[in-house]
Amino acid sequence: MTSIPVNPAGEGGPSSAAGSRPRILVPEKVSPDGLALLTPHFDVDVRQGITPEELLTVIPTYQGLIVRSETKVTADVLRAGAALKVVARAGVGVDNIDVPAATARGVIVINSPAGNIVAAAEHTVALLLATARHVGRADRGVKDGRWERSQLVGVEVGRKTLGVVGLGKVGLHVARMAKGLGMTVVAVDPYANPDMARQAGVELLPGLREMLPAVDFLTIHTPLLATTADLVGEPELKMMRKTARVLNVARGGV
């Protein structure tokens, strides 16, 4: 196990004298390998499980804040963090960070969009196959002492049509993997690169209205923005085949 010289919660307060080096607060679990890259240049304080009230109390002495999805970086947090220069999201989405408030205070917000592309795509394909073969239902049934074999046959995904909403890095990776499974892939994304889609064997469609009635599986890979909130709701689901399966590997608000 790699030893990382960070200051864990509750052990001795600040890890160096005030003003000697920039200080970074990490209130959530972040890869030790990543933190090891920071410790030669910064004082890194790992305080997992810190409450929102405690965050407001301690944030004034930090220049950097690294979060995942649990910590809410609100306007109040940014106001209290008068010394903050940067808020880093160890992941893709930044919907737990008040970006306009940060911008107004001159605080840079960064994320790591390439950090989990493969993991998210593989998770999507795992969910796709699990829904196709009723893996979740079979697991529950066996644990309850039931073996419903005739009801768990499921479907083959080969020669089925997958619809991808959002053909970004993750969506495109999913599309390529689905092609490897023998699926037909269509997608909706107004910002997608047509050449990249064509090279991946993906047909771009004008919108959801054209795509939803034609797909057997639907997977969603868009950020949560004002333009994508409630993107797929009851009206859209009614356009789909009754046998279609929907995967949301994006944000719940989509």
From TrEMBL:
From what superkingdom does this record's organism come?
Eukaryota
Give all residue intervals belonging to the D-isomer specific 2-hydroxyacid dehydrogenase NAD-binding domain: 125-254
- Give the span(s) annotated as Disordered: 1-22
Q: Which residues form a coiled coil?
A: none
Q: Name one GO molecular function term.
A: phosphoglycerate dehydrogenase activity
Q: What is this protein called?
A: D-3-phosphoglycerate dehydrogenase
Question: Per the UniProt entry, what species is this protein from, by scientific name?
Answer: Cordyceps fumosorosea (strain ARSEF 2679)
